[in-house]
Write a structure and sequence with these properties.
Elements lengths: L20 E4 L17 E8 L2 E8 L4 H19 L7 H7 L6 E2 L2 H16 L9 H7 L11 H9 L6 E4 L4 E4 L12 H15 L4 E6 L3 E6 L7 E6 L8 E7 L3 E6 L4 E4 L2 E4 L2 E2 L4 E2 L4 E8 L2 H14 L1 H11 L4 E6 L3 E4 L1 H4 L10 E2 L3
Parallel strand pairs: 18-19
Antiparallel strand pairs: 1-9, 2-3, 3-7, 4-6, 5-6, 7-8, 8-11, 9-10, 11-16, 12-13, 14-15, 16-17, 17-18
The structure holds adenosine-5'-diphosphate and magnesium ion.
Length: 360
């Protein structure tokens, strides 16, 4: 697995639980559009991409406007490369040509796909970028979503199989061996996009910025203009977006959450959400509300949060603990218990009495 160097551990103060995250810049300001900054105010912009709201904030940067325009183009390009549903996208073309022929893809698409396939190998298919057919079938988050007929489920399940993805690096092509196979990079794409934005900003010498993709992938660059580390607000998984229940202090780090309350439907008292178990074709059924990963890059953090959810609490905790590269995890169960990996233990504080930190 490709992993970067250890992320710098800073004092992390987690006041409470988390699934969705919002940025607490402490600076207020209008986040809707690019605003002329007054002293200390960020220049920020919202973009709608990957089905989510992307929020970028730059502080004290004379070239902020230019950067935000560049990021706009960068995100649009990534969407055209990585979207499964956009008919003009590379991925769409790869899926259209499944079972027929190889399709040329960009370097970005190749990178994300290869990382996905690495994780698929590593997890024995718990993370599998060929779950696209199942994602379409379940249609979670869209109106009319319901439990599919068993024969439809079996058909789509039989089309899942990362080993049938043929990557030709020299030709820069991707070929899906069987007709009907569908690639979906939704479990990792947002993280990759966040990393690309952060890499651009760092290369431009930006010292202080926040990159927030839909609240689930957040990167902080540098520290606040006054030198303090950032406060990232954490929301209760049960609450609607916007209720900040606690904070985590970050500097040059990434935090990524996968949870079941973001997109779901309930049928016969069972909750069906958007993280699928590729062994069954059904949304993973376990006792977790959410998994949050802290790491040094968002691509890994995004994939990790998705498949560690599928692993479940015991196996997932062990997996993150065993990584030994500074990656940390926080797991929240449906009965409001919080489990953290050892790197978060000393600094983790629960302030909401609904939740209990489990100390082992
Ligand atoms: P988000 O941050 O967008 O809410 P996650 O990072 O939690 O999403 O990943 C969920 C998405 O990943 C799903 O919407 C689907 O596109 C894809 N996905 C679901 N299950 C798997 C899986 N087992 N392996 C790989 N990708 C998956
Ligand atoms: Mg993810």
């Amino acid at each position: 697995m490709q992993r970067a160097q250890k992320w710098r551990t800073r004092a992390i103060i987690l006041s409470v639980t988390a699934m969705l995250m919002t940025i607490l810049s402490g600076c207020g300001g209008n986040e809707e559009t690019k605003e002329k900054p007054t002293a200390g105010e960020p220049v920020s912009k919202q973009y709608y991409i990957f089905d989510t709201v992307v929020n970028i904030k730059l502080f004290d940067d004379p070239k902020a406007e230019e950067h935000l325009d560049h990021i706009d183009n960068l995100l649009k390009t990534l969407d055209i490369e990585l979207s499964r549903t956009l008919e003009t996208s590379q991925l769409y073309k790869v899926n259209q040509e499944a079972g027929k022929q190889a399709v040329e893809v960009s370097e970005d698409t190749m990178k994300v796909l290869e990382r996905s396939l690495d994780y698929a190998e590593e997890t024995d298919g718990l993370f599998d970028p060929t779950v696209g057919g199942l994602v379409d079938l379940w249609d979670i988050g869209h109106e009319g979503a319901h439990v599919p007929a068993p024969e439809d489920l079996q058909r789509e399940l039989s089309l899942v199989g990362y080993k049938d993805v043929v990557v030709d690096e020299a030709q820069s092509t991707v070929f899906l061996k069987r007709q009907g196979m569908v690639l979906d990079l939704g479990g990792i794409g947002k993280g990759f996009a966040a990393d690309e934005v952060a890499a651009y900003l760092r290369a431009e010498g930006v010292k202080s910025a926040l990159v927030d993709l839909g609240g689930s992938s957040i990167i902080v660059i540098g520290s606040k203009p006054n030198g303090d580390s950032w406060n990232v607000g954490l929301q209760d998984p049960d609450s609607s977006r916007g209720t900040t229940m606690g904070t985590i202090r970050l500097s040059d780090q990434v935090i990524d959450t996968s949870g079941i309350y973001e997109r779901f439907f309930i049928e016969d008292d069972v909750m069906y959400h958007h993280i699928l178990d590729p062994r069954t074709g059904v949304p993973s059924q376990n006792n977790l509300k959410s998994v949050t990963i802290l790491a040094d890059n968002a691509t890994d953090a995004d994939a990790l949060s998705t498949f560690v959810y599928v692993m479940g609490l015991t196996e997932g905790l062990k997996y993150i603990e065993d990584l030994n590269d500074g990656t940390e995890g926080m797991f929240i169960t449906k009965d409001n218990k919080i489990y953290v990996t050892s790197g978060l233990k000393d600094t983790f504080k629960v302030t909401d009495e609904q939740y209990t930190l489990v100390e082992e």
